[in-house]
Structures are given as structure tokens and as C-alpha cells.
Amino acid sequence: MVSAAGTGGGRVVFDRVAHRFPGGNGESPTEAIADFSLEMEEGSFVCLLGPSGCGKSTILNLLAGFELPSVGRVLVGGRPVLRPGPDRGIVFQDANLLPWRNVLENITLGPELAGRPREETLAAARRFIRLTGLEGFERHAPYELSGGMRQRVALARAWITEPPILLMDEPFGALDAQTRLSMQELLLSIRQVTGATVFFVTHDVDEALFLADRVVIMTPRPGRIRQVLVSPFPRPRRYDRLILDPAFTELKHDILHAIRRPEYEI
Ligand SMILES: Nc1ncnc2c1ncn2[C@@H]1O[C@H](COP(=O)(O)OP(=O)(O)O)[C@@H](O)[C@H]1O
Ligand SMILES: [Mg+2]
User: Fold this and answer.
1) Are 216 and 38 in contact (CB under 8 A)?
2) Is 11 helix (H, G, I), strand (E, B) or coil?
3) Which is nearest to 12 in space by CA: 177, 179, 174, 214?
4) Whose C-alpha lies nearest to ligand 1, atom 6?
5) 165-169 and 197-202: which strand pairing?
6) Does the CB atom of residue 56 touch ligand 1 within 6 A?
7) What pLDDT shows up at residue 241?
8) Ligand 1 in contact with 57 (CB < 6 A)?
9) What is the pLDDT of residue 7?
10) How far is the C-alpha of 167 from the C-alpha of 158, rounded, in Å?
11) How much is the pLDDT for 2?
12) 21 lines ligand 1 (CB under 6 A)
């Protein structure tokens, strides 16, 4: 399978995007997003950070093509996003595995539906099973796996077709702290190999600082960009080293303050 990374298909532009959800039953509409502009270079890792309800998932869904913006444009590889497509892999908080298919069959589902040759699909599956540490679990059913293992399968399933862009909506939010950290490390190590653009939604400041090249901090109602912070931390990163770095503590403090400021101002 030929990777699309490196061909410009991983470049993302939000061009003055606003989004409104119509209100049902005579209720007023929700202004979810206002004046959101952002450019992501191919291969960059952006974390979208903000409190619950500030519009993070709406932004991700616009990039996924599940919603079309009320105003403005979302471009992938220079073309407007009109619908979901194989150039954007997605991982949600819930792994959403098909319970009647085993680990291998869940991972190969996408290429199977796309009619890819069996040998090629199995070779790609073997590669991502190795990269996600799932060797030996190929024949296990989803119910036999821990939450962390299920997210490994979701990651391998999203990545098997090597999309130039990976969208992640709080993918590790339901995991315990130890498992979350090992999944974050896993994500960084796989990304080093594939070079995909990653758009990662989180409300966890530590997670954003550990993972991202840039942290985009949002304000709520309507969701706007408050601040874009460029990470000063070189890669490869180690979380146990990062938390000893005074710059990390300082940035974490600044971000927490930026996120909470609207409440102070009330
Ligand atoms: N399908 C929808 N219909 C109406 N309102 C929605 C819909 N999806 C999200 N919203 C509203 O838009 C705002 C942003 O939601 P969301 O993007 O899910 O926030 P976050 O992911 O940051 O928690 C919230 O006020 C939410 O209630
Ligand atoms: Mg959300």
C-alpha cells in the first residue's frame, strides 16, 4: 500500500469557519464555532485543547466531513472537505469495534470494504499489529480485550490504509492514567514511522503538551481560538523527563490560566 504522506494531501486549512446548529422544537440555534482559522502543515501534530462543550468535536467533525461549515471553508490538500474520505482516519473515545469480528478482522475491515487485495491487506495488518503491540491477540474477540487494547485495535484500524491525516477525538479519555500514558507513547512512536498529520482533540493539558507541535487553545460559546502555543520541547520526548522541565510547569500554568480565565472574568 502506498502512503499518501508527503504528497501535500496532509495539509489542512480552516478558513474563517463558523458553525451553527439549528435549534429543535422552537429553541434558538447554537453558535458552536466562530471565526476559526488555522493552518496545519503536512506531518504536523496539532492538539485542540479546551473545556467540555467549547466546540472541539464540532471542529473535528468539520474536518472529518461529518458536518459542513455554516460559514467559511475547510480544505484538505487544497480541496474543500465535502464528505468523509479515506484520506482522514478517525479514532474516537470509544473503539467501536465490531463484536462479531476478531482483532485481525476488525483491523482489516476498511481495506476489505475497499476491495484491496487480500495479501496486501494482511501484510499491512501484520505491520500495524506489530506497531501497536497486538501480536498474539489477532484471534481475540473485542470483549476479551482491555480498554487500552481495544484502543490499540482502533488505532491500527484507522492507520492500516495509511491516511495522510489522523483525527483523534479524546481517544484516550476513558483510559486509566498508566494506560493513557502508554497509548500516548505508542501514538508518538507510530507517527514517527508514518509521518501523518495528526489532529488531536483533548481537554487534558498534560496530554496536549506531551504530544503536540502546536497547542490550539479554544474559548467556549461560540468556540474561537484564544491562543496558539508552539511547543518548545524537542522530540523524541519522554514524559518522565518532560514533567521535570520547568518550562513544562510554566506552560501548563499559563494554559490552565488561559482556559479558566472566562470564569474569573464573570
Ligand atoms: N448536533 C448538534 N446539535 C446541536 N447542538 C450541538 C450539536 N453538537 C454539538 N452541539 C453543541 O455545540 C457546542 C459544542 O459542542 P462540542 O463540539 O461537542 O464540544 P466539545 O467537543 O468541546 O465538548 C455545545 O454547546 C453543544 O451542545
Ligand atoms: Mg467533544
Assistant:
1) yes
2) coil
3) 214
4) 21
5) parallel
6) yes
7) 95
8) yes
9) 66
10) 9
11) 42
12) yes
| DSSP string computed for 57-100 | HHHHHHHHTSS--SEEEEEETTEE--S--TTEEEE-SS----TT
CB of 161 shorter than 6 A to ligand 1: no
List beta partners, residue 47: 200, 215
Atom of ligand 1 nearest to the CA of 201: 21
**Side-chain half-sphere exposure of 122, counting CA atoms within 13 A:** 3
Q: From the CA of 204, how far away is ligand 2's center (Å)?
A: 12
Give the DSSP H/E element, type plus range, for residue 112: helix 109-113
Nearest CA, atom 16, ligand 1: 55
Cα Rg of the chain, angstroms: 19
Instruction: Read off the C-alpha cell for 110.
Output: 476498511
Largest CA distance in the chain: 60
Separation of CA 163 and ligand 2 centre (Å): 22
Q: Whose alpha carbon is nearest atom 3 of ligand 1?
A: 21
CB-side exposure of 193: number of CA atoms within 13 Å?
13
Ligand 1, residue 223: give the atom nearest the CA: 14
The letter for the amino acid at 195 is: G
Ligand at minimal distance from the CA of 22 is 1
pLDDT along the chain (266 residues), means of 10: 61 98 89 97 96 95 98 97 96 96 97 95 97 97 97 96 96 95 95 93 97 96 94 95 96 89 50
Q: What is the pTM of this model?
A: 0.94
Amino acid at 3: S
Distance CA 249, CA 252 (A): 5
Ligand 1 atom closest to the Cα of residue 55 is: 17
| Nearest ligand 1 atom, CA 59 | 17
